[in-house]
Amino acid sequence: MNNGQLLNFVDGQWVRSSASDYLDVMNPATAQALTTVPLSPGAEVETAVSKATAAFYEWRRTPSGERIQPLFRLKTLLEESRDELARIITNECGKTYGESVGEIQRGIENVEVACGIPMLMQGTNNEDIASGIDEHMIRQPLGVVAAITPFNFPAMIPLWFLPYAVATGNCFILKPSEKVPMSSQKLFELIEKAGFPAGVLQLVNGGKETVDALLDHPSVRAVSFVGSTAVAKYIYSRAAANGKRAQCQGGAKNPVVIMPDADLEMTTRIMADSAFGCAGQRCLAASVAIAVGDAQDRFVESIADAAASRKVGYGLDEGVQMGPVIDPNSKARIEGLISKGVLEGAKLVVDGRHQTVSGYEDGYFVFPTVLDHVPPQGEIAHTEIFGPVLSVMRAKTVDDAIELVNKRAYGNMACIFTGSGAVARKFRYEADAGNIGINIGVAAPMAYFPFSGWNESFFGDLHGQSHHGVEFYTQTKVVVERWPKEWSRQF
Ligand code: NAD
């Protein structure tokens, strides 16, 4: 930071942007400005890309076992800074301290996995594809790559990409969300301490102009994006039109089926955390509950109790279970969608609109909300609300429930709560989503599995994390080699 303005990190130096436009970064619980973030112009992307291009020559020639040493140091630095980073996340993003600590842990796990790159990026080979001829497939880095990330996991989501990109030998530029840029500032302070060579990892703050400059720059070979579906589609098509690889993770509307044989106490506890944790601002939040048969009334009654008793407040205060939503626009949009649900015929069982938290009267709080009898064909059943709102639909059988699950455009996650292995298997087999939870409320893949969104939740083929990340950030080269045995006779 410099005079209350965040800096960019380019070519191993903290630099002040020449931007004429700045935005305030707000604490959503207090509605107070924390700092300002520059909307860096395209020329600053140009500088970052040229420094990254220059750094790439040496970095890709650095043995993979050496490339991972700064990643090991970064893991330790992240662990040592966990408390400070968690407080930054809570202050700029609103989630509770415990949720912030959790997201840092999930980020660290990706650093750990990427430290295995000397094995993960191994190629394949066949001896004697013809007599005396061998064939090899080797993996080489792409060059300069970039990631554009959303507001809801400011520390974890950059780490879905960054460790794999640099471990495989690329140089990486991060454009974080302009709503939560302070976590990336801290992350890059740690990156500086970890000792990566200048130009290998760079941070350019900004908005649309900054993103477009990355998408249009011919030396940026690949773009990773996480955010809303509309922007994911835009980034995917503009990156592809410019000949780049792209992996774009979009929005979600995640259905969870509750069978009559589900353990009601466990299901309610997990569902409340999934629907209202992080104030519902998780791409893996349970946003639609489909209650089957005689689970219907029992589930609505128990989730209503859980919603009404959840303690809402400032995420650094003791005992708070849910923080605010990100900004006043989100609060207005979420409250508007709740009203729309009522107009469409849903029954408002718990109403979280127009509430305040004592001591934080200006904060952007929406309390947990439960809508029952949500009509399956209405807007509320299909629109991503991205707030602490659970919509309950009712189904007679598991087949009816799966039909409702598969009617939606998104495909990030689908879950089922049941005591029956056969029903669980049927669900796993038939549900049209890339991440499936069975008696799990947030089916977030560990770092060693790909984050497999489908349909309108993902554009691309190789997902973030694990071996998909390794494949995304490398290009394969096939070498066919002949060394006639007679040539060795001279020695
Ligand atoms: P967003 O799409 O508004 O912004 C994401 C990023 O795109 C930011 O860095 C922003 O600066 C940039 N951006 C925004 N508009 C742009 C434009 N017109 N042109 C170029 N760049 C633009 O998303 P958000 O509000 O920050 O995040 C919430 C969304 O992210 C939700 O829809 C949520 O479901 C989704 N999300 C998805 C996943 C996943 O894994 N699928 C994970 C987290 C969040």
Topology:
Blueprint: E1 8-10, E2 13-15, E3 22-27, E4 32-38, H1 42-61, H2 64-67, H3 69-80, H4 82-93, H5 97-114, H6 117-120, E5 124-130, E6 133-141, E7 144-148, H7 156-167, E8 171-175, H8 182-194, E9 201-203, H9 208-216, E10 220-226, H10 229-241, E11 245-249, E12 254-258, H11 264-276, E13 286-292, H12 295-309, H13 328-343, E14 347-350, E15 369-372, E16 389-395, H14 398-406, E17 410-411, E18 413-417, H15 421-430, E19 435-438, E20 454-455, E21 458-459, H16 466-472, E22 474-482
Parallel strand pairs: 7-8, 7-10, 8-9, 10-11, 12-13, 12-18, 13-16, 15-16, 18-19
Antiparallel strand pairs: 1-2, 3-4, 5-6, 6-22, 11-21, 14-15, 17-20
Helix pairs in contact: 1-9, 3-5, 3-8, 4-5, 4-8, 5-7, 11-12
User: Could you state the CATH homologous superfamily of the largest domain?
Assistant: Aldehyde Dehydrogenase, Chain A, domain 1
Bound molecules: nicotinamide-adenine-dinucleotide
- Kindly name the structural category: alpha/beta
Taken as a percent bin, the fraction of beta residues is: 15-25%
Oligomer description: single chain
